[in-house]
Design a protein that fits this description.
By secondary structure, this protein is mainly alpha-helical. The protein is about 70% helix and about 10% strand.
Length: about 160
């Protein structure tokens, strides 16, 4: 019952304050703005119990919202890491294919990354002459850091 009494007192006080402010600013050119602001003030006071209940609901939902936000962050980090890995693999694969094309050789490269997201091994597919195979093996080892042992040639 005390809550209802406080609410009625607030509404009456807001109405009195708004009435006095409107009366004092009647002759001023910005009276319409003052009336609008007083109306907003009254609306806020009238809706305060509803707004107050929503705030209580938010307090109960806060742990769930925080947990969901943490999950979203983890998913976002994982997605960004996957995109980064895909980018590194595609760049390395394109580099190898371009270097082979410079030798008039067509190959496809499939890069596997290590835990540090650096190229760890590669599977190369295509018909390559022994000379170009030797040259590409050396380029991949020296420029991408993939040793000969982790280069698998198919075809």
């Amino acid at each position: 019952m005390d809550g209802l009494r406080e609410y009625v007192i607030r509404v009456v006080a807001a109405a009195l304050i708004s009435g006095v402010v409107i009366r004092l600013t009647e002759g001023i050119g910005s009276g319409e703005i003052i009336r609008m602001l007083c109306g907003l003030f009254m609306t806020l006071i009238l809706l305060q119990p509803i707004i107050g209940r929503r705030e209580l609901q938010w307090e109960f939902m806060l742990p769930q919202i925080r947990r969901q936000a943490e999950e979203n962050v983890l998913e976002g980090v994982a997605a960004a890491e996957k995109i980064r890995q895909e980018f590194i693999m595609r760049q390395a694969e394109t580099y190898i294919s371009n270097r082979a094309a410079e030798m008039d050789t067509e190959i496809q490269a499939e890069i596997m990354l290590g835990e540090d997201n650096l190229p760890e091994s590669v599977v190369l597919t295509g018909a390559v002459s022994p000379l170009n195979k030797s040259r590409l093996t050396q380029i991949i080892a020296s420029e991408l850091g993939i040793p000969r042992e982790r280069q698998e040639w198919i075809g």
